[in-house]
Specification:
Largest sheet: 2 strands, parallel
Strand order of the largest sheet: 1-4
Number of helices: 1
Shape: globular
Helix content: 25-40%
Order of helices and strands: EEEEH
Length: about 80
Amino acid sequence: MIFLQIWHGGRAVHPNHIGGQETWGPSPIAINGDVYTPKGKEKHVVPKGMTKEDIREVVKEFREGAEKAKKAGFDGI
């Protein structure tokens, strides 16, 4: 059996991990400390605090990911 884990990285994700896209989190509070990216050691960024619409978008994307995993033959998510 093969299972797929899908998750949202939240404020722990640095834009350099996601092609320069904006980091989203539950609130606009950065993690204190450093993160290692392809560019080297950097500070965590202040994420965009998610709105209700943003949360709905992430839920939609999780659903789409689960549907694609099912079509690809995964046994569970």
